[in-house]
Hints:
Elements: H1 3-27, H2 33-48, H3 51-54, H4 58-77, H5 82-85, H6 93-111, H7 117-139, E1 144-147, E2 150-153, H8 154-175, H9 180-200, H10 206-225
Antiparallel strand pairs: 1-2
Helix pairs in contact: 1-2, 2-7, 4-6, 6-7, 6-10, 7-8, 7-10, 8-9, 9-10
Amino acid sequence: MSESLENTIILAGVFLLLFGSAEVFYHMFKVKVELTRKYVHIGTGIITLFFPVLIGNHWLILALCGSFAVILLTSLRFNLLQSINAIDRDSMGSILYPAVVYTVYLIYLLYGNGLYIYFYLPILTLAICDPLAAGVGRRWPKGKYTIGTETKTVMGSSAFFISSLILTVILLHYMADLNLGNTILVAVVIGLIATVTEGASRRGFDNLFIPLVVLGCLVGFTELQGLF
């Protein structure tokens, strides 16, 4: 058995433990579903960071993401995994997540030139900035605005932008050879575009669009400006 396959099996087990612990928190300790969803959201993002380090075959990533997509679809069909599904709104977020992880990994292999930032920044922006925006918007619901049937807040969007800006600057500092001016430029552009994307997304499609626009910005800066 190859090392990549062994690591894939181990990571699959870690994902199952994450989902299982969320179910325990929800059913046994009566933790609210919005909190267990964030727990799983952040946890999956952290676990996913090990993909480019431990797994060197995109087919294994496809198999892993595909398996969890099937599990999540089955859970919706049979009303399982209530720690992430028992919400009072229509959301495709949990189903879209495995698809976007594989897509980001594949583009990282094709365009990343070995730079982990092509994988880490899209995934971490979704894993950290998105739930932070939702939490801040719920705690301080100032400046409400409506997109379709969903209500967002200026406070939440501001939290997303600030956290995205900080995250991007930190990752660029440690993972890319850019001067300060280019670092700030890239961080501001990515932060603004990702924030607008999060604010405009509905039905959980931010799970798809946020990583893709962040990755698109990185690829665009590379192709047009040769920054990376």
